[in-house]
Amino acid sequence: MKENVLEMRNVTKRFPGVTALKDVCIDLRKGEILGICGENGAGKSTLMKVLSGSYTAKEYEGEILIDDKPVSFTNVYDAQKCGIEMVYQELNMVLDLSVAENLFVGNLPLRNGVVNYKQLYSDAEKLLERIGFDVNPRTIVRLLNSGQMQMLSIMRACAKNPKILIMDEPTSALTDQEVETLMKLLNELRDSGVSVIYISHKMQEIYRICDRITVIRDGQTISTNDIDKVQEQTLIEEMVGRKVENMYPKENHATKEEVLRVEHLSVPHPNIHGKYIVEDIGFTLHKGEILGIGGLVGAGRSESLAAIFGQYVKGVKKEVWVGGKKVKITKPLDAIRHGIGFITEERKLTGYIGVLSIRENMSIASLKKLSGLILMKRRKEREETDKQFRQLRVKAPSSETKLFQLSGGNQQKVILGKWLINEPEILFIDEPTKGIDVGTKADFYQIMNELTSRGVSIVMVSSDMPELIAMSDRCIVISEGRITAELEGEEITETNVMRAAIQGKK
Ligand SMILES: Nc1ncnc2c1ncn2[C@@H]1O[C@H](COP(=O)(O)OP(=O)(O)OP(=O)(O)O)[C@@H](O)[C@H]1O
Ligand SMILES: [Mg+2]
Question: Is any ligand 1 atom within 6 A of the Cβ of residue 405?
Fold first, then answer.
């Protein structure tokens, strides 16, 4: 058996009103990748913040041993001195500095007391090249997309040659290609003796890359197993603490009545000037239908939805009919007025306001339903948010809890709740269950059923193949800027979607 590099013993961490961790124990061996999984709010990020020095030794109980020696940190730098680096669930880059500066921040090469930019850029170039990450080191970080930023924060951690590397949901913003680069990088790190803690809700990734897996539920360690000795179904049940009989409870409420038609949609490429990411595509959406949009991450699906919704305007060409009438949508408010709602992919960046409560965040979007007399409004607002709060199983003391106090996945649920209250007739959802745990996913699909049974029509972009296949009534696939397949019912299979998704790719 490989030697232990890290042991965390009986770690307990309390927040006002919440015990986030109760006597949690984990151990990590040299040169292994240990997965950690558990429901939203189980305590995964908190445990890693304890390990990486975000919380001082006074703020929790328990012991941390590195190479069998007890350590105690008062800040992140203490942990870094012991070789611990963490890539956070939230992005944390200095937006107005270059890629190279961000990579070596705190560690910039100096000459006579000033930054040696020539060396900085050449060091950065070498590092980027070694990993195979194609971006100019002089680029200002603000101009990168969220996937590129995420890759950058991973590389920044690697550049410090850590002994223990912690990754908290590293792939949630990455394209398929970037995920491949990351997997390669992880294998290299493992081979060179680095130990990695890998937090993810994606079971496929966990099975692909991890050596062992620890399950955490309600702030307690439930089990640790070698990955090849434990079945996915067992892990899921350990995570949610109940039997999940039917992950995908699909009902069919699709009709033939057209509610939305898009034609001649062309959207400029966000990064490549003069090129379109999708060119002259179109589709029809029917009442009560769930129309899935499949394709590789980066194929332009999110951009297409944003363009129809009026969020992207510059250079966009489109013709849109709602309920058979031609409409002009030049800003999101136009779309909302025509009954369209949009749950965007980059919720973390645009979707919520951290210092406001769950209730306040949920009611922000509901222009229509909650209007009326002020007094009525208050009561109604509370009723509606409390309903969503329960329905989505948001883990928090109450709907008055501030958003920044919630775990990542629970923040996401609040954003979903906000649009569910608003009840648009047409709902665009981009990666609905990204960052959401397996138990809540099943609940969310049930909510989609309820919406469609009431005649709401949904367009869903999803990279989660089982979700796309199980929940779509019809599915179009986008590749290289075109629609390469339209599938219905039984035709929606993993093979058919994948084949169409890579069609035209070099
Ligand atoms: N700063 C804070 N103040 C108050 N409570 C907090 C704070 N940070 C986390 N919590 C609470 O601690 C619990 C554990 O949260 P944590 O972020 O560790 O969950 P997680 O397992 O990472 O979930 P997710 O999968 O959603 O990211 C949650 O109930 C959360 O609301
Ligand atoms: Mg988390």
Answer: yes
> What CATH class is the domain 4-240?
alpha beta
Answer for the pair 79, 53: CB distance below 8 angstroms, yes or no. Answer: yes
Separation of alpha carbons 172 and 290, rounded Å: 23
> Alpha carbon 353 to chain centroid distance?
17
Q: Is any ligand 1 atom within 6 A of the Cβ of residue 409?
A: yes
| C-beta of 40 in contact with ligand 1 (< 6 A) | yes
Residues in the chain, total: 506
From residue 270, how far is each of 266, 302, 303 by CA, in Å? 12, 11, 8
Q: Which residue's alpha carbon is at the smallest distance from atom 24 of ligand 1?
A: 40
- Does ligand 1 have an atom closer than 6 angstroms to the CB of 410? yes
Q: Are 131 and 181 in contact (CB under 8 A)?
A: yes
Evaluate if pTM is beyond 0.85.
no
pLDDT grade, residue 16 (50/70/90)? Answer: confident
pLDDT tens-digit profile of 95-154?
788 888 888 877 788 888 888 889 989 988 988 887 777 888 998 888 887 778 888 888
Beta strands in 30-101 (DSSP E): 33-37, 61-66, 69-71, 84-87
Residue 46, ligand 1, Cβ within 6 A: yes
Which residue has the CA at smallest separation from atom 4 of ligand 1? 405
Q: Domain residues of the chain, as ranges?
A: 4-240, 253-339+425-506, 349-423
The minimum-distance atom of ligand 1 relative to the CA of 38 is: 21
- Ligand 1 lined by 422 (C-beta under 6 Å): no
Please state, in angstroms and rounded to a whole number, the distance separating the CA atoms of residues 363 and 235: 36
Q: Which residues are within 8 A (CB) of 288 and not within 5 positions of it... i.e. 6 or more apart?
A: 253, 254, 255, 452, 453, 455, 456, 457
Do 4-240 and 253-339+425-506 come out as alike in CATH topology?
yes
413 Cα to the center of ligand 2, angstroms: 13
Could you say which architecture CATH assigns to the domain 253-339+425-506?
A: 3-Layer(aba) Sandwich (3.40)
Best of 407, 434, 438 for a ligand 1 pocket test (most atoms within 8 Å of beta carbon): 407
